[in-house]
Amino acid sequence: MIEAPAKHEGLSVLDRPNSYIGKTVPRPNLDRLMQGRGAYVSDMELPRMAHVVFLRSPHAHARIVNVDIEAARQMPGVVAVVTGKELADVITPWVGVLSHLKGLKSAPQHAIAIDRVCWQGEAVAAVVATSRALAEDAAEQVLVSYEELDAVTDMRTALDPETPVIHASLGDNLAFERVHNAGEVDQAFAASDEVVEADFVFGRHTGVTLEPRSVVADWNAAEARLTIYQGTQAPHMVQNIAALHLGLEEQQVRVVCKDVGGSFGIKVHIYADEMATYALSKLLRRPIKFVADRVESFNTDIHARDHRCKGKIGVKHDGTIIAFEIDDLTGIGPYSMYPRTSAIEANQVVNLVGGTYVTRNYRARARVVFQNKNVMCQYRAVGHPIACSVTEGLVDLAAMRIGMDPVDIRRRNLIADDAYPCSSPAGLKFERLSHHASLAKLLQMMDYGRLRAEQAELRKKGVYRGIGIASFIEVTNPSSAFYGVGGAKISSQDGVAVRLDAQGSVICQTSITEQGQGSESLTAQIVGSVLGVSMDRVRVILGDTDNTPYGGGTWASRGAGIGGEAALQAAKVLRKNILDVAAAILQSTPAELDIVESRIVNANDGALRIELKELSRIVYFRPDTLPPGIQPELMVTRHFVPREYPFAFTNGVQASWLEVDVDTGFIKLLRHWVVEDCGTIINPQLVDEQIRGGVVQGLGAALFEKCIYDERGQLTNANMADYLVPMSGEMPDIDVGHVVSPTAESELGAKGAGEAGTAGAAAAVANAVNDALKPFGAVITEIPITPQIVLAALGQI
Amino acid sequence: MTAPISILLQVNGERVDAHVLPRINLADFLREHLHLTGTHVGCEHGVCGACTVRVNGEIVRACLMLAVQAQGASVQTIEGLSDSGEIADLQEAFRNRNALQCGYCTPGMLMAAQDLLKQQLAPSRDEIRGHLSGNYCRCTGYHAIIDAIEATASARQRSPQ
């Protein structure tokens, strides 16, 4: 590990003896999950709970002529059959726009469609029965007559005058457009020795969380309170939105989120069917459970990517990159998602392209169009894989054109490690990045020279292996610049409450959430380290709006950097409060005391003065024995939000080593390397596993995953057998290394790490494939790179 | 064929008498009738492996088997394997290696891994990857899972159970 100089002089609270910071320790509470004793929403049962099944449109675009629910109502076990019109009396529609995304427009969306369906899979009726199976039986008896309308499916023609407009009130199918101009782009291209252009195509794919979206909504009419049990990344956001559209106060809604079977951004949104489930519970005055089945997941979980991006790069013969230009087009389905909107990804693409490089000349246009396909929105590494694949693809094509090694062109153009702080042509502020140190470490890890020699040897034998490199930046620790400034009630701050309980253990309530990243672990590690108690005496409570401070949750790689800092600050104050009480009890001063392994000791010689347990006993049960005027506060809450930088950018670089079978088009991934700089590392193992998991999601996009629609807007592979995800047999081992540049914006210094793997993996693979195919002069700029695409590029089919 | 049928089977060593609809699959039976919710349902069409259980010693996808087909069978779920201590070392290796994140695939993974380790003392990484090909994990990228199983295999070789 290459250590950056410490920004805090002297011993920080994180360097205390027995600190857990920077140490690999197992996550608490894994036994529950390993023994099959987790508490996933799909496992939940409540008294009088009924199950809802949604009847969904088979058409991509159709007018609803009539919904006949009479026969379904007579079916066994049926509690209610509810149409969109009926439910609209309980829950109001919404429009997925934010004011900072200027010009973004969308149409009102209802929990259940009323007059018209706009994608295959949109719900047209809800059938509630005493079991899921009975509800499905009854759903078959609902008769819906449709008048099919022309479907807008191809994003390339969505804006053509002859293409129907999906929402007449909006005037056209353009949801959002952003244009950005920096530097002197035309002059730069004119001054370039070579200009390389390419069309990059990115398949639509989705998250495939292994536990489908699940919600149990429980309206207690007597309390006038709705409890929502939901696998969500952002409980307070769900609370706000549910209350807003059900006409309730936020305090009438409690959101509880226990174990979540995968999220990856899929579960950071609020879906129409979830809104409908909340409303049904209120309407029917009983708990209602909705668990998407796998077909519904494919048809209604947000899809992501689906971009067509024209890219252009200008380069000098010496390898200096002097301009980037992109024209990006993406189709987002019929509605901008709510409440985060579907314009963020395209906006991110504009922000991120070229962001790793020195050149100031950058022109970009991004257009976001409506289509009659499933909704599209933010999924892990929002926009990053697009921006990284376009940028790094162009850089490799430029290097190929001028005959330069891919490493050399990057060394020449990556922003220097001593150039910070600085900003990108898109206006992003970089506090401190480490592109060159990261690249150097990567080359060392992969033994680049040896690998190149091996590649050349094998090529003589007709074995075509490729090396692909991709540098990237990642947006983490977002401030309110992401959503708050646009009017969304999505908190960018997080809070942590820490208290010493009556037996000297620590209870910690945090507003970040856990979906397996290790939020509980990092919180316990930080609190335990600062306080001087062992992790097994720190219990972390999260995922409950009634029982945690208010905060954003876990998304956009923000949990460790923001929630972790709140935990640190809360624990520091609690530590001070404990030492104040101890000093009073011991007739000493706080400065002379320390807390080590749950005991108050002398700071100078470590001698035991009093057990924390005993201090707790005195405070809670014999406060009468404390000196007059002492009121101990053994519970402390602190909040944190980044203020100086809108985002804490991280950086890294990935490399892929693979083999292409030029006869079959199959690609075998042999090895993958990542060097990543997320600042302070709280738990190395957890960071590495976030990176690895993220890489594999990027590899899925690179080689396998695609939602295949036909021209009528029918999703043709909405099942796990036909939609390919990475399986263990196809995945390589992944080596992860680090460079550490802590952010000075927090005492903890942690930036995010959750999306870095996904950001650069596909770019590295695509570059490696093109490297492998170099002898054939074949270039591929489309993912997923299926055998068909390889063979087509080779002219074999 | 829609009336409930009585079945008698052993689940985790306990006798279970039940009346089940012919259409209910074994996964739903375990989850909804017996409340053994460690058997997870990921795809309901036999692809993802989250519902892997052991029936008469062989691992099967509980979503592809009807409950009535388990008549007379001995079924073991993740709860049973955990309580018997059979996979305690494997679970320990998963914990130490952080071979799970959300944990939804984990019961099925552990079932499949134990199945492999019973058949093969020292599987290679490729063999481990091959054996787990029918168990999807969306969080870990598999590397840590392979490491944990490899470590368990080595430990068991050093001190056979």
Topology (elements, then pairings):
The complex is a heterodimer of chains A (797) and B (161).
Chain A: E1 2-3, H1 30-34, E2 50-56, E3 62-68, H2 70-73, E4 78-83, H3 84-87, E5 116-117, E6 123-129, H4 132-139, E7 143-148, E8 174-182, H5 185-191, E9 194-206, E10 214-220, E11 225-230, H6 235-246, E12 253-256, H7 272-284, E13 288-291, H8 294-300, E14 303-315, E15 321-331, H9 344-352, E16 362-369, H10 384-402, H11 406-413, E17 422-423, E18 429-430, H12 435-446, H13 448-460, E19 464-476, E20 494-500, E21 506-510, H14 519-531, E22 538-541, H15 559-586, E23 593-596, E24 599-602, E25 608-611, H16 612-621, E26 635-640, E27 648-660, E28 667-677, H17 684-703, E29 734-740, H18 756-772, E30 782-783, H19 787-793
Parallel strand pairs in A: 1-29, 2-13, 9-30, 11-12, 15-16, 21-22, 28-29
Antiparallel strand pairs in A: 2-6, 3-5, 3-7, 4-6, 8-16, 9-14, 10-11, 10-13, 14-15, 17-18, 19-27, 20-21, 20-26, 23-24, 24-25, 27-28
Chain B: E1 5-11, E2 14-20, H1 26-33, E3 52-55, E4 58-61, E5 74-76, H2 78-84, H3 88-97, H4 106-119, H5 125-131, H6 143-158
Parallel strand pairs in B: 1-5
Antiparallel strand pairs in B: 1-2, 3-4, 3-5
Which tags fit this structure?
heterodimer, A: alpha+beta, Aldehyde Oxidoreductase, domain 4, Aldehyde Oxidoreductase, domain 3, 7-stranded mixed β-sheet, 6-stranded mixed β-sheet, 25% strand, disordered N terminus, B: 161 residues, alpha+beta, Ubiquitin-like (UB roll), DNA polymerase, domain 1, 2 domains, 5-stranded mixed β-sheet, globular
Radius of gyration of chain A: 28 Å
Write the CATH homologous superfamily of the largest domain in chain A. Answer: Aldehyde oxidase/xanthine dehydrogenase, molybdopterin binding domain
CATH topology of the largest domain in chain A: Aldehyde Oxidoreductase, domain 4
Described by strand count, sense and barrel closure, the largest sheet of chain B is: 5 strands, mixed
Strand percent estimate of chain B: 15-25%
Model regions low in confidence, pLDDT < 50 over at least 5 residues of chain B: none
Task: Give the overall pLDDT of chain A as a whole number.
Answer: 96
**Number of H/I helices of chain B:** 6
Question: What's the structural domain tally of chain B?
Answer: 2
Described by the principal axes of the CA atoms, the overall outline of chain B is: globular
Write down how many β-strands of chain A occur, each being a DSSP E stretch of 2 or more residues. Answer: 30
Give the class-level CATH name of the largest domain in chain A: Alpha Beta
Give the strand order, joined by hyphens, for the main sheet of chain A. Answer: 4-6-2-13-10-11-12
Pair of chains with the largest interface and how many residues each contributes: A-B, 55 and 57 residues
Count of alpha/pi helices of chain A: 19
Gross CATH architecture of the largest domain in chain B: Roll
Report on the biggest sheet of chain A. Answer: 7 strands, mixed
Strand-residue proportion of chain A = 15-25%
